[in-house]
Amino acid sequence: MSSYDLQKIPTRAPDNLDKEEIKQQTKELIDELEELQNKLFAEDKWSLLVILQGMDASGKDGAVREVFSAVNPQGVKVKSFKVPTERELAHDFLWRVHQHTPRRGLIQIFNRSHYEDVLVTRVLGLTDDATANKRFALINSFEQLLQERGTQIIKFYLHISQEEQKERFHDRLNNPRKHWKYNPNDLKTAEDWPLYRKYYGEVFENCGPQIPWTIVPADQNWYKEYLVAKTIVETLRSLDMKYPGLETVE
């Protein structure tokens, strides 16, 4: 039994926050992220892996679009992991993931990730709990390997309420610009919330201590974007990166 109870964790910003003030701070963080990414690329010592998980309509795409809006496109890549192909299924479950980890100097974003292989696979009955427990250990070793090679890893769970999710599904149905996002299976996924909450709790419990998860209240996009940007900027600041000096010819 996991000690994480997502039903008790807020999905909205604290009431005492000023929305406009937070949005201004987010803008400043995004501007700083541009400079930090430039240093990351120039120093060529570290890399950054940002993992975004969350229920359907939790705002993963929007977080990527807004938070990384000022970053040089050459310095950031986004990978979305969907249903494995036949070729991918012929390998171990981390094979397709490892190919997209970032080289030094780059930021890589996973919009869904290797954690789907201990979440949705169990909800759909494709794997059992024993398999998931083995995969927890393999995931921890995999992420430790990346860290030892200089990759900083930030893991976000975008925490949306069922009520807000329903509103966003309704918006997808009624807004022609968002029809492409609508999937009838989303409604079935929503019915499985209790299972997803349970399995996410186990993920936080088993794959968190060394590389902790940041649970982001995601009902309000302005607050979600602020927390994601703040966490990424603080992580990059901590690396104390510097631009390389001029090379001299002797």
Short description:
This protein has about 250 residues and is α/β, with parallel strands linked by helices.
Keywords:
alpha/beta, 250 residues, Rossmann fold, 5-stranded parallel β-sheet, globular, 5 strands, single chain, 46% helix, 10 helices
Kindly provide the name of the CATH class. Alpha Beta
Q: Within the CATH hierarchy, at the fold level, what is the topology?
A: Rossmann fold
Mean pLDDT, to the nearest integer, reads 94
> How many individual helices?
10
Shape: globular
Describe this structure in words.
This protein has 250 residues and is an alpha/beta fold. The protein has one domain (6-237): Rossmann fold (3-Layer(aba) Sandwich). The protein has ten helices and five strands, in the order αβαβααβααβαααβα. A five-stranded parallel beta sheet has the order 2-3-1-4-5, with helices on both faces.
Write the layout of secondary structure elements.
Elements: H1 19-43, E1 47-54, H2 60-67, E2 76-80, H3 86-89, H4 95-98, E3 107-111, H5 120-123, H6 129-148, E4 151-159, H7 162-174, H8 185-191, H9 193-206, E5 213-217, H10 221-237
Parallel strand pairs: 1-3, 1-4, 2-3, 4-5
Helix pairs in contact: 1-10, 2-10
